[in-house]
Design a protein that fits this description.
The protein is an alpha+beta fold and 522 residues long. It contains 13 helices and eleven strands. α1 crosses α2 and α3 crosses α5.
Length: 522
């Protein structure tokens, strides 16, 4: 194999590799020997078919397979010989003029990971803000839960429906006077103002009373999951059968018993654990941000552009998705475009921090155990249908890139925990409002974190403030920079999508009533 370096610019490398016809032919011979025992041909005993006849029968397929294996081996040898650490999979191109039986010239283009001096972890100083889970916080959590467990009681017959009331209706929907599948239902409970139905449906129930019949005029959203109803104007003829009003919630032993618990004290105990978990999450979020800030401030090196592009692509996709749900989509996207360069800078920082944390972890022996990895795969498999879970687990076992993506967030957490142990930490007790304000101040200062990255999300318990309505829903404070071991490495969609596709095809399924009531849903 002959290798010539044709490009060495920054982190970009390119090589021209020549794989000799002799090497390829030797691999064909190996393939012939491998399949010979299984080849069947009239006039020959099993396993006795001459090699030249096997070549004649299967030559094209054997040559193609041998060439692919020779190229794979050539790329591996190149990586070893040149001591290359590719940032992403190299791009390998076979010259168009290749002919069977001749030398094969290939071009291997890649970006390498930067050489990072072993990061110093001495002198890290962090402040740990802690919030006590006091009785007031616990009761507030219980009251919030009680609101979610809202009960209703019969309203006076003359009462007119208002926001917050529950209306029991029969309905029949039609588009251009023609009924459609799922558009008819009976005894459907609608909470006015809950936003569970298509826009305009609930609002038109305000002012109705028991016995009223009314025709509601609505338009199905453009993103409605039923293709033939998207964006279509429709009418729903409804009959109000019952009207209920929210019942006052008494937080006492009886309320706890209605939840299957023995007493209010037991409920408080459970809720205190939840509050402590939330508060610990806020504490960790604040500390982690300060840690990443210190690391970013003391390390600066070039990062592979392809990794940055992949990371920026994930950020931008998330932002565009959220902007598409704003009232004025075009204005939201225009506002987004103004900050494109800032989001790209976020992607650079995220990739750099990811590489830095990876280097620290490797230098100090941080590892994800096989048992931890198995637990991760099993947990990830739960998002798929039962019949797809085994296929997903096999896919992760066979695809190193998919396994790395799954492993990355846990690896990052372990490196961060390692650095917490090495840092000098001072404690300060604050209120929940103070720690949330401190986290939000970080956001406003440009230290951005948020959903959609596949990384750590300790801070999701308290998202940053939304921008004004004209702004995109996901502002800079909602995009994470928290890095993973390989922040831009994604498993190939064509493989990963198979088990997940069915779960994603019906995003509204969790909200829907039974089929006969489904059409009015969002």
């Amino acid at each position: 194999m002959k290798t010539v370096e044709t490009l060495n610019e920054g982190l970009k490398r390119e090589y021209r590799v020549t794989i000799t016809a002799k090497d390829i032919d030797a691999r064909v011979d190996d393939e012939v020997k491998s399949i010979a025992p299984t080849v069947r041909m009239p006039g020959f005993r099993p396993g006795k078919v001459p090699a030249n006849l096997i070549r004649k029968m299967h030559g094209a397929a054997l040559s193609a397979d041998a060439l692919n294996k020779a190229i794979e081996a050539g790329v591996r040898d190149l990586m070893t010989k040149e001591k290359l650490r590719p940032a992403l999979q190299p791009a390998v191109t076979l010259d168009e003029g290749y002919e069977t039986g001749k030398d094969a010239d290939i071009t291997v283009a890649l970006e390498v990971l930067p050489e990072i001096a072993t990061p110093s972890i001495d002198g890290l100083k962090l402040e740990r803000l802690t919030v006590p889970a006091d009785d007031k916080a616990v009761m507030a959590k219980i009251e919030e839960f009680a609101t979610q467990m809202k009960r209703y009681e019969e309203a006076p017959k003359t009462k007119k429906a208002a926001t917050g009331d529950q209306v029991i209706i029969d309905f029949a929907g039609s588009v251009d006077g023609v009924a459609f599948d799922g558009g008819t239902g009976e005894d459907m409970a609608v909470e006015i103002g809950a936003g569970q139905l298509i826009p305009g449906f609930e609002d038109q129930l305000i002012g109705t009373k028991v016995g009223d019949e009314k025709v509601l005029k609505v338009t199905f959203p453009d993103e409605y999951p039923v293709e033939n109803l998207k964006g279509q104007p429709a009418e729903f003829a409804i009959t109000v059968k019952e009207l209920k009003v929210p019942a006052a919630a008494s937080i006492d032993d009886e309320f706890a018993k209605s939840l299957g618990l023995e007493s209010l004290d037991k409920l408080k105990e459970i809720m205190k654990d939840q509050v402590e978990q939330e508060l610990n999450g806020l504490t960790r979020t604040y500390m982690k941000r300060k840690l990443l800030d210190q690391l970013a401030a003391s390390h600066d090196f070039d990062v592979p552009p392809t990794m940055v592009e992949a990371e920026f692509g994930q950020i931008w996709q998330q932002l565009e998705h959220e902007a598409s749900h704003e009232e004025d989509v075009e204005a939201a996207k225009a506002e987004l475009e103004k900050d494109r360069d800032e989001y790209r800078a976020i992607a650079v920082r995220r990739v750099r921090l990811g590489l830095l944390l990876s280097e620290i972890g490797q230098a100090h022996g941080v590892q994800v155990s096989q048992q931890e990895m198995q637990r991760l795969v099993a947990q990830a498999a739960q998002q798929y249908r039962p019949e797809d879970r085994q296929r997903f687990m096999e896919y992760v076992q066979q695809d190193a890139l998919a396994a790395a993506q799954l492993r990355a967030p846990l690896y990052e957490d372990k490196v961060v925990d390692f650095l917490f142990e090495k840092a000098e930490i001072s404690d300060r007790e604050v209120t929940r409002e103070e720690i949330e304000a401190a986290i939000e101040a970080d956001d406003d200062g440009g230290h951005v974190h948020g959903p959609g990255c596949g990384h750590d999300h300790d801070h999701d318990a308290k998202p940053a403030k939304k921008a004004a309505a004209k702004k995109p829903a996901a502002k800079k404070a909602d995009v994470t920079e928290e890095a993973a071991e390989a922040p831009a490495k994604k498993a190939p969609a064509k493989k990963a999508a198979a088990p997940k596709a069915d779960a994603e095809e019906k995003p509204a399924a969790a909200k829907k009533a039974p089929a006969k009531k489904a059409a009015a849903k969002k």
